[in-house]
Write a structure and sequence with these properties.
The complex is a heterodimer of chains A (about 110) and B (about 110). By secondary structure, chain A is an all-beta fold. Chain A contains no helices and eleven strands. The relative contact order of chain A is 0.35. Classes of the chains: A mainly beta (about 110), B mainly beta (about 110).
Chain lengths: ~110, ~110
């Protein structure tokens, strides 16, 4: 079953602009993770944020987590054409269901 | 360090056949998880193996099974294939699943005719 739901489903922006993707989930979590997937390839791990953390940065990526609202956001600053991909949030509930993924946001960066 | 390796990359089978997919995790990683990705259902968890034992299992029928060897390599098997089994099957490894990022392979694209 899907727990994380990304919003928007698709996003097209100009190179150099910032891209923001949101994720909502339903139950308590140990951590929330963001992954990127290029067409026909596997998933690449971007950031893991634990339930007791509110914000994490990695290069041009910034992730926030609001456990009271059960939501997270991924911000990509100064986007590049190479950022074109699908982005997924995944929740780890620490139970028996592995990671629970959302349907993803398809990001297109226009050169 | 070599990444997660999945073989084969592409596979075509017919209904009723069975298939075995292979996954070699990153050296030193003991947890291997399998996921099915389809356009309709998205990414769904199949099962996780740790130290040769199935630790977690998703909501898939018994036709889907797996195992892990002493070197942490894992295989998954699907018997009596159905058209709906057409998917990208992804394997992910981590040192020990809990609270850690997963490292994914490029997957096996399985097509059922």
């Amino acid at each position: 079953s899907q727990q994380g739901e990304e919003d928007p489903q698709a996003l097209s922006i100009q190179e150099g602009e910032n891209a923001t993707m949101n994720c909502s989930y339903k139950t308590s979590i140990n951590n929330l993770q963001w992954y990127r997937q290029n067409s026909g390839r596997g998933l690449v791990h971007l950031i893991l944020i634990r339930s007791n953390e509110r914000e994490k940065h990695s290069g041009r990526l910034r992730v926030t987590l609001d456990t009271s609202k059960k939501s997270s956001s991924l911000l990509i600053t100064a986007s590049r054409a190479a950022d074109t991909a699908s982005y997924f949030c995944a929740t780890d509930e620490g139970g028996a269901d592995g990671l629970t993924f959302g349907k993803g946001t398809h990001l297109i960066i226009q050169p | 360090k070599a990444g997660v390796t999945q073989t084969p990359r592409y596979l075509i089978k017919t209904r009723g056949q069975q298939v075995t997919l292979s996954c070699s995790p990153i050296s030193g990683h003991r947890s291997v998880s399998w996921y099915q990705q389809t356009p309709g259902q998205g990414l769904q968890f199949l099962f996780e193996y740790f130290s040769e034992t199935q630790r977690n299992k998703g909501n898939f029928p018994g036709r889907f099974s797996g195992r892990q060897f002493s070197n942490s390599r894992s295989e998954m098997n699907v018997s009596t294939l159905e058209l709906g089994d057409s998917a990208l099957y992804l394997c992910a490894s981590s040192p020990d699943h809990s609270n850690q990022p997963q490292h994914f392979g490029d997957g096996t694209r399985l097509s059922i005719l």
